[in-house]
Structures are given as structure tokens and as C-alpha cells.
């Protein structure tokens, strides 16, 4: 499914907003009735990922209800069991002991009751203080075709696999009242406990105002809408998949969703249906006033902070009590056409789970791929103290570049040669600045970085690079992941994704980590301050023909202080759980 170009006018976006519909219920996904139930005959392997989360075939979108239960991580996701485009949505279910190797189970939720007959859409898990999990999700109901919120509970709490879920008959638990747009009312969050009540958020819109409605309940069954929404922002349109969580103001530990008070900040993330991007703010949550106040100076809208400046949507975090981390999951859709998805028999991947915590500045979140990923690292090659003069590109040999993990630190002797930052660019999206400057445009300090998934004669390559600019009172660092030269293939969306990196340059170093996996390049700049994901479909630079280079096209000499690159091994990826009894997996 092609992502929406960033430059579409707001008007066109609004028009699109009203065109998309599903059985009268407003949906964010394009509907292709012709393809929805076209069963997949052959699965094309060329661009399938090796170590990113994927089922063996068909369409996937949002990660749902990640949680940890009796020694297993559970992950559910929106899945079309009948085809490679969005439709026939069920909650597919996988389990893992390490967030990297996954086994699949039968779908946990699928349309079966009047209150979800037209679809089981996104939702979240809440693990109650007694350890019992409950799922809240959006049902599309036969009766009124509007979006209502339901709950489901495990049929057998002693089964660590939580194979079977029950949808009790007292559903739905939240109906849209007359003041709510019932066809734009979905994606309940994890519940948190505050002042004698459970609370959840539900994403919505009132005309063009994006809204996170707040509901409270004493028993998780009878829910009442609070007088005011927790938060709303004019002009942002439908808020899908809200995520609201506390973060500690120091250190890297995560917090249970109900923690609040001293040394705690809150993050509110929303997925904007109009742009198909997400943004978040950090702020203060007042339990008593039932309000969230974003910190002053943060942009609360289109241009706000993003968890990822690339192809990353419908994300969700959860608290992992076994390691005291907060972990983030995001979905990356395809950047090819619906016809290409149908031909290849699959669409959508989930990105590597990331640990999230608050930057010591308090001004943004930091993210890093979970440490468990490093178990897949195989053969390692290194470079150190490699000088890169203007125009140099040096090959990194000896690993399977199409399936690799690369971690590099660059240094530069001075910032004197940094180009001035044109004040006009301040009004542009970073993506447009990247498009103007590109990886080949000779600069001062940068562009320098990695050429990933490159063909021998550079007909194809996906550069991930930095460029440093001199602004009025400080330096501005741009990180680009530019798909424009990534493929000779046709009908692809090839954006020059980019984000600015809020980093202190006193040590004159910039680090970059890129997870390369056949059709995805997931990059983390400056220790996880800025993340960018690109989906790319090389035609020549595939498998062993994919090459990796470090490069510099700036006039300032760059040194590769240290580079580590690993071939990545294959994890167990959604192999069905076979003949596994009801035993406790911790005893295996
Ligand atoms: N996808 C789900 C919705 C959600 C959207 C439907 C976000 O619940 O709003 O598959 O991608």
C-alpha cells in the first residue's frame, strides 16, 4: 500500500479523509474489494525480511496488545487471513520468549458476535494487579456499523500461551454517545489506575479536531466519558492508535502505566490518519483535573516530535515487568503498489521492538533496538580510523549486507566548514531539506554516512547520512534515509525521509546504527535520538549482490572512528506452536 507523499495539500488530505469508508464505518485503510479475498498462491521471497516480524503470507497492519504473561511475550496484530491487502481483519497472535524468535498461534480475536461482526480492529492489553490480562479492542458492529469498544478475557488463565479468548455477552463496554462521531471512534489504550478509577483513551475526531476521549470506570465494565477529552488539537483530523504512558525523568527504566507523581512525565502519541505519520508530545498528566498539559515549546501537531521520521505507524508501547523496560512496536507498510502486494503475496512488517526512555534533557524520547536482537549477530567485520576525503566511498566487505546490523561512529576535526542553514528551510519538513541536498550534493560537514543496499555500479543504493549546518546560534544536524535511488523498479514510493537530530556536537562525533533487512532500512542516529525507517525494493542489490559502503561527499575530512557490521542470522519467525502442551514454558 503506497504511503502518502508528504507534499499533498491539506485540502486533498481532507478530501481523502471522507472518501475512505468501510461498511459505513470510517476506516483509515484503503479498501480494495477486488483483492481482499484473493487468496495468495505464491509468496515472492525476494523482498521478504529475514529478521523483522512477518507472518508467512498475507497482509498485516497495526501491532495490538503487546504484553508479557507467564514468561512469554504476546503480540497480536491486525491481519487479513485471506489476502495481501487490508480486509477481513482478525487479531493474529504470536508468542516469544525473547521478542526476536516468534511462534504463531491461531487468531485470538475474529468477528463472531453482533458487536464485532464487521471487524475486530485495534486495541490494547491491560495486565491487572492480580496478573490477569484483559484486552480492549474496537468492534465494528453489524447493528449500526459504528465503532464500539469491547473487551475480551483469556478462557484459561493457566495457559501461558493464552490461546483462547472469550468475548463476554455484556459487550460492548463503550458506545459512542450523541456528542461523539461514532464512525471515528477507535483504538482503546491500555488502562491505567488513578484516583480510584481505571482510565482509557479512545482516538477520535470532531470535524477537523483530533481528539483523545478519556473514559473512567471502577470495574472495567461500566465506563463513563469524562467532561473534557484528555487532549485535542485543532486541524489534526482523526487520531488513531493513541498511546499514553509515563516515563521516568532520569534513567532508562520503564514504568507501569499507572505510575504518576514526582520524577514522572507523560508522553502522548497519536497516529494522524490524514498524514499517515505519528507525532508525540511530552508533558504533565493531572489525575485530578483529568487533563494532559504538553510541555511549553513543544509542537503539538503536524510538525511535532516523531518516534520515527520514516515509514512507521500505528505504534504501541507496553511495560515489560520482567526487565523494567518500556518497549515500542511500530508497523511499516509497503511502499509499492497494491497490485505488487497482491503479486508478492504479502504486505506489511513490524519493526524491531525498541526500548524507549526519556532523554536526560527531558525534551524528547530516546529509542534503541532491544538488546535481544544482538543474539542474531553472526559474522562480524570492523573498520577503524578510516579517513574519508571528499568523494570517497569505501566498501565494507565480508558480511551479508542484505541482512545486517551496522553500528558506526564518525568524527570530524571541526565544524568550521558547515554550510549555513538557510532560514527558509526552517519552514520546510526535514524531508524536503533532504530532497534538496541529497547524498551527492557536495557540502561542508557532510553528507557522510552509509550507502546501504548498493549495487556494484551504484545504479541502486539507499544512503543513510548526516549533514551538519550552521544556524544562527547553533548547529543543525540532518539525518536522511533517502529512498530516491533505492531501486530501478517502477511504481514505487521513494521518499527522502529525514529528521533533525538534537545532539550536542562538542565531541565532534556522530553515531549511526542501521538495521538492514532486504526491503527495510531502520536507522538510529546519535544513540537513538532520531529514528528513520525506509522501505525499499532493490532489483540488482539483492541477496549477495547488495553492497555496503561508508562515504563522504563533504569538503571536511570525516573519520570512521569505529565501525562494526554483522551478518544477521535468521530467527524462528512465526512457525506455528506445534504440540505444545499447557506446560509452563519456563520449565522447558
Ligand atoms: N488500523 C485499524 C484501526 C486503526 C487503524 C484497522 C490504524 O483500528 O485506527 O485495521 O492503522
UniProtKB/TrEMBL annotation:
Sequence ranges assigned to domain Glycosyl hydrolase family 32 N-terminal in this UniProt record: 52-369
CDD domains named in the record: GH32_Fruct1-like (cd18624)
Segment forming the signal sequence: 1-27
Main location: other
Molecular-function annotations in GO: beta-fructofuranosidase activity
Cellular component GO terms held in the UniProt record: vacuole
InterPro entries on file: ConA-like_dom_sf (IPR013320), Fructan_Metab_Enzymes (IPR050551), Glyco_hydro_32 (IPR001362), Glyco_hydro_32_AS (IPR018053), Glyco_hydro_32_C (IPR013189), Glyco_hydro_32_N (IPR013148), Glyco_hydro_beta-prop_sf (IPR023296)
Keyword terms of this UniProt record: Glycosidase, Hydrolase, Signal, Vacuole
GO BP: carbohydrate metabolic process
Localization in the cell: Vacuole
Gene3D superfamilies, alphabetized: Exo-inulinase, domain 1, Glycosyl hydrolase domain, family 43
Catalytic reaction(s) noted: Hydrolysis of terminal non-reducing beta-D-fructofuranoside residues in beta-D-fructofuranosides
Domain Glycosyl hydrolase family 32 C-terminal stretches: 372-567
Protein family according to the UniProt entry: Belongs to the glycosyl hydrolase 32 family.
Protein name according to UniProt: Beta-fructofuranosidase, insoluble isoenzyme 1-like
Gene name linked to the record: LOC105111134
Amino acid at each position: 500500500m503506497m504511503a502518502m507523499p508528504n507534499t499533498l495539500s491539506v485540502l486533498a488530505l481532507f478530501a481523502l479523509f471522507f472518501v475512505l469508508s468501510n461498511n459505513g464505518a470510517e476506516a483509515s485503510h484503503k479498501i480494495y474489494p477486488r483483492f481482499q479475498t484473493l487468496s495468495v498462491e505464491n509468496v515472492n521471497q525476494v523482498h521478504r525480511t529475514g529478521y523483522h516480524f512477518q507472518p508467512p503470507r498475507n497482509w498485516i497492519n497495526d501491532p495490538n496488545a503487546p504484553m508479557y504473561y507467564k514468561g512469554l511475550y504476546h503480540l497480536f496484530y491486525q491481519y487479513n487471513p485471506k489476502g495481501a491487502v487490508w480486509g477481513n481483519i482478525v487479531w493474529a497472535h504470536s508468542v516469544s520468549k525473547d521478542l526476536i524468535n516468534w511462534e504463531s498461534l491461531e487468531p485470538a480475536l475474529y468477528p463472531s458476535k453482533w458487536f464485532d461482526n464487521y471487524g475486530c480492529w485495534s486495541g490494547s492489553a491491560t495486565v491487572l494487579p492480580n496478573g490477569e490480562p484483559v484486552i480492549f479492542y474496537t468492534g465494528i458492529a453489524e447493528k449500526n456499523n459504528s465503532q464500539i469498544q469491547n473487551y475480551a478475557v483469556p478462557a484459561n488463565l493457566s495457559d501461558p500461551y493464552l490461546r483462547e479468548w472469550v468475548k463476554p455477552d455484556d459487550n460492548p463496554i463503550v458506545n459512542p454517545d450523541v456528542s461523539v462521531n461514532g464512525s471515528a471512534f477507535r483504538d482503546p489504550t491500555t488502562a491505567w489506575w488513578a484516583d480510584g478509577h481505571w482510565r482509557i483513551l479512545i482516538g477520535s475526531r470532531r470535524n477537523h479536531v483530533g481528539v483523545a476521549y478519556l473514559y473512567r470506570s471502577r470495574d472495567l465494565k461500566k465506563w463513563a466519558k469524562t467532561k473534557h477529552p484528555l487532549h485535542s488539537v485543532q486541524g489534526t483530523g482523526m487520531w488513531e492508535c493513541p498511546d499514553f504512558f509515563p516515563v521516568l525523568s532520569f534513567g532508562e527504566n520503564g514504568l507501569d502505566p499507572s505510575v504518576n507523581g514526582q520524577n514522572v512525565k507523560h508522553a502522548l502519541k497519536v497516529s494522524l490518519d490524514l498524514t499517515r505519520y505519528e507525532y508525540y508530545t511530552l508533558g504533565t498528566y493531572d489525575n485530578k483535573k483529568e487533563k494532559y498539559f504538553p510541555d511549553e515549546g513543544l509542537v503539538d501537531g503536524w510538525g511535532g516530535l516523531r518516534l520515527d521520521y520514516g515509514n512507521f505507524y500505528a505504534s504501541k508501547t507496553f511495560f515489560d515487568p520482567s526487565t523494567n523496560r518500556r518497549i515500542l512496536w511500530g508497523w511499516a507498510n509497503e511502499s509499492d503498489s497494491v497490485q505488487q502486494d497482491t503479486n508478492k503475496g504479502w504486505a506489511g512488517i513490524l519493526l524491531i521492538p525498541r526500548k524507549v526512555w526519556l532523554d536526560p534533557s527531558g525534551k524528547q524520547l530516546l529509542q534503541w533496538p532491544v538488546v535481544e536482537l544482538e543474539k542474531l549477530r553472526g559474522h562480524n567485520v570492523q573498520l577503524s580510523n578510516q579517513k574519508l576525503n571528499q568523494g570517497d566511498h569505501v566498501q565494507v566487505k565480508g558480511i551479508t549486507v542484505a541482512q545486517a546490523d551496522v553500528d558506526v561512529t564518525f568524527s570530524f576535526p571541526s565544524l568550521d566548514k558547515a554550510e549555513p542553514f538557510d532560514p527558509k528551510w526552517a519552514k520546510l519538513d526535514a524531508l524536503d531539506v533532504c530532497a534538496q541536498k541529497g547524498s551527492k550534493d557536495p557540502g561542508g560537514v557532510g553528507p557522510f554516512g552509509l550507502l546501504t543496499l548498493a549495487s556494484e555500479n551504484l545504479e541502486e543504493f539507499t544512503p543513510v547520512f548526516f549533514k551538519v549546518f550552521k544556524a544562527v546560534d547553533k548547529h543543525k544536524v540532518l539525518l536522511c534515509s533517502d529512498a530516491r535511488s533505492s531501486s530501478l523498479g517502477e511504481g514505487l514510493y521513494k521518499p527522502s525521509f529525514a529528521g533533525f537530530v538534537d545532539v550536542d556536537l562538542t565531541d565532534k562525533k556522530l553515531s549511526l546504527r542501521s538495521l538492514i533487512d532486504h526491503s527495510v532500512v531502520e536507522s538510529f542516529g546519535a544513540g537513538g535520538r532520531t529514528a528513520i525507517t525506509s522501505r525499499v525494493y532493490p532489483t540488482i542489490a539483492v541477496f549477495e549482490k547488495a553492497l555496503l559502503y561508508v562515504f563522504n561527499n563533504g569538503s571536511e575530512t570525516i573519520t570512521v572512528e569505529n565501525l562494526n557490521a554483522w551478518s544477521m542470522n535468521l530467527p524462528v519467525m512465526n512457525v506455528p506452536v506445534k504440540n505444545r502442551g499447557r506446560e509452563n514454558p519456563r520449565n522447558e
